[in-house]
């Protein structure tokens, strides 16, 4: 059974789809058995493509992108091994929605996996910014990938053992 991860931001058109496609790329390169997707805490953009600046940043970074925004459904807690919030507001909302302590424990911040992040664990929302803000978000996501891959390896091994 694959290790299952979802990224969650606000509208699911900027940060979380970017994180989804970056991690998908690296999982494929590493040959890991994992499923990755994303969603938003709000339903404002359900069905919409990723923001054009997200797509551009991904393409320029060497990543693919295909996306239709969706809203996180609390019934999904049982499906995921790891639910990664992009900022503290998302973390609080997801933990509030969690049905039990085990589900709350699976909700973490993406930047917890970046050893250089320090105390600044929020990935800022680039929506009202410019192209540079999207490039900055991409770099923050990429910085978390090595530790995320290690987490997937550990979690997949634990599930088999």
UniProtKB/TrEMBL annotation:
EC number(s) recorded for this UniProt protein: 3.1.3.48
Keyword Transport among record annotations: no
Keywords: Hydrolase, Protein phosphatase
Main EC class the enzyme belongs to: hydrolase
Phosphotyrosine protein phosphatase I domain span: 3-151
Gene Ontology molecular functions: protein tyrosine phosphatase activity
Active site annotation, chain numbering: 9, 15, 125
A Pfam entry, by short name: LMWPc
Entry keyword annotation includes Transit peptide: no
Family, per entry: Belongs to the low molecular weight phosphotyrosine protein phosphatase family.
PANTHER family, A to Z: LOW MOLECULAR WEIGHT PHOSPHOTYROSINE PROTEIN PHOSPHATASE (PTHR11717:SF7), LOW MOLECULAR WEIGHT PROTEIN TYROSINE PHOSPHATASE (PTHR11717)
Protein name: protein-tyrosine-phosphatase
Taxonomic lineage of the native organism: Bacteria, Bacillati, Actinomycetota, Actinomycetes, Streptosporangiales
